[in-house]
Design a protein that fits this description.
The structure holds two protein chains of two kinds. Chain A contains eight helices and no strands. By secondary structure, chain A is mostly helical. Chain A has two domains: about 70 residues, no CATH class; about 90 residues, Winged helix-like DNA-binding domain superfamily/Winged helix DNA-binding domain (Arc Repressor Mutant, subunit A, Orthogonal Bundle), CATH 1.10.10.10. In chain A, helix 1 runs antiparallel to helix 2 and helix 5 packs across helix 7. Chain B contains two helices and 26 strands. The longest helix of chain B has 28 residues. Classes of the chains: A mainly alpha, B mainly beta.
Amino acid sequence: MDAEAQKSFREFVAGRSTALLRTAVLLSGGDRHAAEDLLQNALVKAAGRWQRIDEPEAYVRQILYRQQIGRWRLKWRRREVTVAEPPEAGHAPDAAGAAELRLLLRSALSRLTARQRTVLVLRYFEDLPEAEVARILGCSVGTVRSTTHRSLARLRELAPELAGLDPRPQQRSRDFSPLEARP
Amino acid sequence: MNVEELVREALREQAGAEPPAPAGFAERVLGARRRRRTRRLASAAAATAAVVAIAVGVPLLDSGGANDVRPSGVVDSGGVRAHPDQSPPRELIGAGDTVLAAYYTAKIQPQSAKRGVSARTYHLLDPKTGRYEKDSRWSFVAVAPGAKTAAVLERTLPAHRIGLLDLATGEVERWIPVQHGVGGLAFSYDGTRLVATTYDENPDLRTKEKLIGGAGGKETWTWEATFGTSTRSGFYDLDVASGAGPWSPVAPARDTSSRADFAYSRTGRLVYAQYVGGRDGLQQFYDLKGGKAAAPADERYLRSDVPARLSPSGRIAALGLTKEVAGSPGRSWSSLRDPRTGKEIARVRGSHLLAWTDEKHLIAWERVTSLEEEYRPRLVLVTIGSDKVVPLSGVQEPYRPTDVQEPWEPVFARR
């Protein structure tokens, strides 16, 4: 890495690391330290090929996602996330409870596997189509679909309050299988 | 609102509430990268030094008349001998003019709580059986072309005599005594000379250091070469036939890694060694009296960590990894350049070019894993102008910085 590459790398990190770190925090289920480690690793890898990368942000994001999946593949133990209050059942959602519901959901998200969470982040935070998610993660569209469905089902298990929500599939997820869509 | 919309909102809210990245994050990343590269260099430098030694030399030892057991019947000249199921190799691997003459593994032998030596164990090609046989007498082996002669150092480094080993009989034909202790060897391209790098201490010393940042942030230990404490003292330029030759002092610098062996330039008029700097694979040339010298016109673009160097005719320079394409497995290409201008003339498959087998083919490491998985390579034969690779060996075992045993490394020789 020559001086010029280092300069462009520093500029990229200064400009984009907050946004990238936000994604990393979501991927890590809210664990800020794990997120910083994840992003640091991805940036170290990118730095090694800096002069040959055309789109640095896309490249770093791809490493972020794949690292998460890679950890899952290697069966590395997911760092347990301590949840102060286990999500309690019994609060029926109402208009005023939406914020509370999001908090419950956040805690449920932290208890998914890294792979499940990565797929949800790609589909619903990055708003990527299934085919693009499959390309990034190097798996089939079918795997993306089934993982999405299983992850949502798992969220409903972890946060039964979600049961009150409309389970009907929307246009963008018309491939919901009847089994998976069941609350 | 359905679950997906709620997930979307929850994720956005969580992301939005996150404070910005810490100040100086770029420096933190670059610092981590430097530390990792330094660790990798420690083992890569040691590996390269021996592989560089491949290259070179015609066997000058004359085992003589009736005792001359040539490897006929084993070496299928011009053909390809591959054993894609063997890692490390058990039976002869070779292609064109190049044969895998030996391989070695290195293992940490602790000497005290904090100090150890990364000691090599060589497996040498037995020309009679065509198999690689363990020969634990040697701590360092440089094989001359023809794979009939090797220069060897005994177990304790630095060594005070150099053996010339007849690979057919497994016996040392001659010892060359040396006053300054030797830690590394390399033949000249024509095989008439041997450069012996001298060290005051074992160049493969390691110290035990704490490595933080393993899985789950657990504390782990690793054996590291210590930088900035090189004990390299100079080199002998020996005439193989007579065993005579001058010793030239070369003072170590702060950028000298613990093992930084000298090797001859193609013509043998200069020697060079790797040094550690702003990028990988830097090389410094010296004249045969130990004075710093400019690189020869056709070697100035070469990298010390790419062992293939110049093609047999000297018209093509083998350089480093230049392109990787995702997939399963990922595919790599390395750069071939005009040695005089440094301009790329072609790209050839392979992530690490090890040895030319003729003007059109090389042996390389090439990965069998995807780009995001751990890098695990096998030896392959690659062809200029073709994207096809021919597997020659099985897949090298995985290696982590905390392992005490390093994966096998090849030693090639021209036939």
